[in-house]
Amino acid sequence: MGPGRFWALQKSKKKKTKVLLTAMLPRQTRTMTMLRELALRNSSTNSIVGNQLKHRHGFHIIRQTCTEFPRKLKKTERKPWVTNINELKRIGRAERKERQIVRERILQPPQNGLLVKELIPVAHQVNADRIQLFTCVSKVAQSIAIYSCSVCGEVHIGHRPHKIRTCNVMGSAASKEHCWRRGAVEHVLPLVESFHLYDRLGRAVSHNERLQVDRIPAILELCVQAGIDLPEYPTRRRVFPAYSISGRVIDFEKRFPKEDAPGKDIYACGFWQKRNNISEDNKSADMQPCDLQGTAVRGMEAWERMRSGASRLMETYAVQTCGYCSELQVGPKGHRVRNCQAYKHQMRDGQHAWQEATIDDVVPPVYVWHVRDTQSEKPLVNGLKKYYGMLPAVVELFAQAGASVPNDYVVMMREDVAVPEWDEEKLVV
Question: Which sequence spans correspond to the domains of the chain?
Answer without folding.
Answer: 43-65+414-429, 85-140+189-362, 146-183+366-413
